[in-house]
């Protein structure tokens, strides 16, 4: 293939209108090793397994945060309601919201740390498997 016929299609160009071929393609210079963006993506996507926590783990973390928020809200409301001599629905409700927020934030922090630890652990496993498959010695 002659070098002048190798082309890459671009969606948008920063070049002024009228520069380059009329069909919106830019010619690659001779000896250039650029490939189309789709070629690079097709080679890299799926070639290395993800070290991110599974969707199930992330959904369980979200569920734990929601349950903690509900429990914190119930505890905050109940404790305030029991401590009030008179009816204090506004104070009990606000303490319920505060308890829900604090519990959800606390469990959210723990969930994020746990998911990061899972990710790091999985990355270590993948690296060890790569070292076992391709020893340096």
Explain what this protein looks like in three dimensions.
With 137 residues, the protein is mostly helical. It folds into 2 domains: 3-44, no CATH class; 55-133. The chain is built from 3 helices and 2 strands; from the N terminus they run E-E-H-H-H. The chain has helices at 37-44, 55-83, 89-133, and strands at residues 7-9, 25-27. It has a two-stranded antiparallel sheet with strand order 1-2. Helix 2 (55-83) packs antiparallel against helix 3 (89-133). Mean pLDDT is 77; it is low at 31-46. Residues 1-32 are annotated as: Disordered. The chain crosses the membrane at residues 59-79, 91-115. Keywords: Membrane, Transmembrane, Transmembrane helix.
Radius of gyration, rounded?
29 Å
The fraction of residues assigned to DSSP E strands is under 5%
Order of helices and strands: EEHHH
Q: Count the E strands.
A: 2
Number of spatially distinct domains: 2
Keywords: Membrane, Transmembrane, Transmembrane helix
Structure in a nutshell:
This protein has 3 helices and 2 strands, in the order ββααα. It has 137 residues and is mainly alpha-helical. The chain has 2 domains: 3-44, no CATH class; 55-133.
């Amino acid at each position: 293939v002659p070098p002048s016929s190798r082309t890459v299609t671009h969606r948008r160009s920063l070049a002024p209108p009228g520069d380059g071929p009329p069909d919106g393609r830019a010619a690659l210079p001779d000896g250039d090793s650029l490939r189309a963006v789709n070629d690079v993506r097709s080679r890299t996507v799926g070639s290395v397994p993800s070290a991110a926590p599974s969707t199930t783990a992330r959904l369980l973390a979200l569920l734990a945060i929601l349950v903690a928020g509900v429990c914190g809200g119930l505890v905050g409301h109940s404790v305030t309601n029991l401590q009030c001599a008179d009816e204090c629905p506004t104070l009990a409700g606000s303490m319920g919201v505060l308890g829900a927020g604090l519990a959800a934030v606390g469990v959210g922090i723990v969930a994020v740390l746990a998911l990061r630890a899972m990710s790091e652990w999985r990355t270590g496993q993948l690296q060890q498997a790569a070292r076992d498959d391709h020893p340096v010695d």
